[in-house]
Amino acid sequence: MTASATAPVACQSTSTSPLRQRGQHEVFCGLTSVIWLHRKIQDAFFLIVGSRTCAHLMQSAAGVMIFAEPRFGTAIIEERDLAGVADMHDELDREVERLLARRPDIKMLVLVGSCPSEVIKFDLARAAERLNTVYAPRRRVLSYSGSGIETTFTQGEDNFLAALVGRLPASAPDAKPSLLVVGSLADVVEDQFDRIFAALGIEDVAFLPSRRSEDLPAVGPNTVFLLAQPFLNEAATVLKKRGARQITAPFPLGEEGTTAWLKVAADAFDIEAARFDAITAPGRDRARKAIAHYRERLKGHRVFLFPDSQMEPSLARFLHREAGAEIIEVGTPYLHRQHTAPEFDLLPNSITVSEGQDVDRQIDRCKAADPDLIVCGMGLANPFEAEGRATKWSIEFVFSPIQGYEQAGDLAELFARPLTRRAALAVEA
Amino acid sequence: MKLTVWTYEGPPHVGAMRIATSMRGLHYVLHAPQGDTYADLLFTMIERRKSRPPVTYTTFQARDLGADTAEIFKRACAEAVERFDPQAIIVGASCTAELIQDDPGGLAKTLDLAVPVVPLELPSYSKKENWGAAETFYRLVRGFAGGRTAPERGGAGPKSCNILGPTSLGFHNRDDIVEVRKILDLLGVSVNVVAPLDATPADLSRIPDADFNVVLYPEIADTAARWLEKEFKQPAVRTVPIGVNATKDFIRAVADLAGVDPKPALAAGNERLSWYSISIDSNYLTGKRVFIFGDATHAVAAARVAETELGFKVCGLGTYSREFARDVRAAAKGYGVDALISDDHLEIEDAITAAQPELVLGTQMERHIAKRLRIPCAVISAPVHVQDFPARYAPQMGFEGANVLFDTWVHPLTMGLEEHLLGMFRDDFEFNDTVEASHLAAVHQTPSPEGSREAPEPQLDLPSWSLDAEDELKKIPFFVRGKARRNTEQFAAESGIDVITIETLYDAKAHFGR
Question: Which chain B residue shows the shortest CA-CA distance from A83?
Answer without folding.
Answer: B125
